[in-house]
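Quick illustration, no need to memorize.
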Amino acid sequence: MPGADTGTTSEMASLKDLRNRINSVKATRKITKAMQMVAAAKLRRAQEAAEAARPYAVRMDTVLANLARAVTDTNSASPLLVGTGKSDVHLLIMMTASRGLCGGFNTNIAKLVRVHARKLLSEGKQVKIIAVGRKGAENLRRDFGQHIIERIDMSGMKFVGFEKAAEIGDKVMAMFEAGEFDVATMFFSEFKSVISQQPTALQLIPAHIPETDGSEKSSLGDAVYEYEPEEDAILDYLLKRNISTQIFRGLLENAASEQGARMSAMDSATRNATEMIDALTITYNRQRQAQITKELIEIISGAEAL
């Protein structure tokens, strides 16, 4: 019967489409599973590097705080500590990944930068953006493309080294000494755990000095220290060093957060693919069973007609 042949052909095509779709999802699951395993391997190394850098950055903040309290003449203090006296031009250093497939990692950092930039622009400030990582520049290209003054691609780097942080720090210092901005703020994602990365804004210039109340003791104890050379000279050197140190910390935190976010995203994608394969397999088996049943009925009906 022509109608029966057409129906059988349609069902065969449908079964073939289901088989192709199941095979396609299985291939995708292999990729996401492999990416999850690679991210897990990279995460351990990146997490260890980020955690190892934290005590150094914290100690740097402590030393800067102690030296800053020893400075009596703020008029002659370094602009890196007290600022330029105005806040008309803001430099935003946005750190994101150069690759995608890491959940909302890049989007969350770009969102924080977008909110901060819009607030500054609404106050009549001038905004300049340095995008470290390709994805951040792509995310802000439509709204703040004219404010992005430089893009630094990190895709070719297998490991984050202090040399790259020092290179970025030197660029920031050169811009500051040339009077191209008044305030610099760094945006990165602080690594908390595999499932938690916190977008963070840290002011670099003027230096962010941790505040302590009078009831807290100095981390150096109650002893009085004499510095050689003078506190101002040491502070000036450490303030410049602190910029590269904090940028290095941000890069390491970002590297760990990126791998943690990618591991979590690929794990979720793998589980979703497995659920989809199971659902498609059930649909395929039911449709195949219905087709076999229909063919058996047609054979029996034909035999009875004879």
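The two ends are 16 Å apart (CA to CA).
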